[in-house]
Amino acid sequence: MTVIETMDLKKSYHKHLVVRGIDLQVQEGEIFGFLGRNGAGKTTFINMLTGIVLPTSGQFRILGVPNNQLDRVKHKVGVLPDYTEFYGNDTALEHLQFFAKLQKHKVTKQQCVDLLEQVGLKNAVHVKTKKFSFGMKKKLGVAQAVVGNPDLIFLDEPTSGMDPESALEMQKFIRTLASQNKTIFMTSHNLNEVEKLCSRIAIMKNGIISGLGTIDQLQKQFQTTIETTIKLLPKNDTLYRHAREEIEAWTTINYSDNQHITVAIRDESDIASIVHSLCKFDTDIFDIQTNRPSLEEIFMND
Ligand SMILES: Nc1ncnc2c1ncn2[C@@H]1O[C@H](COP(=O)(O)OP(=O)(O)OP(=O)(O)O)[C@@H](O)[C@H]1O
């Protein structure tokens, strides 16, 4: 099922077009990563999908419902906004119960306690939120986003401000949500986290999507050459020189010594030709490693 579908969605502020026509589909059960530099338009895009701001033009559907009828699905959508404040004199539990009541979600006190534990607030259930760090507020914000058992959850930087252990715990929680067939649409500036967590990723740049796909697809899309290192043992120096010359005739050798050769190839199928040349000139091969760009490299080069 398509959970989010946008058609040529645009938003301008004071004649400045910040979202410049986005067509995007997100499927049920996906953990979808939405990346972009500061000011790329990510929050504006999410704010349209969650009904906080109105699009300037274009349409979208959330859980099959068109944007002019969002009220019909509001109870099935949870949101962690980019910034959340809480009433400081309430404890985490009091806040969560109050929020759930306000949204007419039927949850028991025990369910709220369990949820706070799952997001990593086990020791802060009865602590007033004015004592919370930024990371703890994010955890409470995530609990607030999922307390109504929504089908679609928007998480704006769910692990920002968290220590590494808390971030891992939160990533585990996000995976659990997706395993229950909930759809997660998340932004993050932690590219390592996105690479590990997300089934597909969109990169937003100046209000449009400049890259979209699985990490594998993005790596192929943004990669011009694949760096391949072969660990080898030549039995004859002259023959090995001939092998290198044969390889060099059609590709670039970035590095070579008597135990390694590193080449830049266009396609993985080129590896077979290199191996063939090396074997033909009496060289044993022990290991082959290809280096694809990390999401960070893709993002930085975009
Ligand atoms: N309410 C508003 N009024 C005027 N301009 C706005 C408003 N909200 C956002 N903008 C502008 O729209 C552009 C996109 O902002 P947006 O917050 O959507 O980016 P972002 O990708 O979420 O950035 P960040 O990663 O910093 O959160 C920016 O130039 C911003 O100044």
UniProtKB/TrEMBL annotation:
InterPro entries: AAA+_ATPase, ABC_transporter-like_ATP-bd, ABC_transporter-like_CS, ABC_transporter_ATP-binding, P-loop_NTPase. It comes from the Bacteria. CDD domains: ABC_DR_subfamily_A. Residues 4-231 form the ABC transporter domain. One of its GO terms (molecular function) is ATP binding. SUPFAM superfamilies: P-loop containing nucleoside triphosphate hydrolases (SSF52540). Pfam families: ABC_tran (PF00005). Belongs to the ABC transporter superfamily. This is ABC-2 type transport system ATP-binding protein.
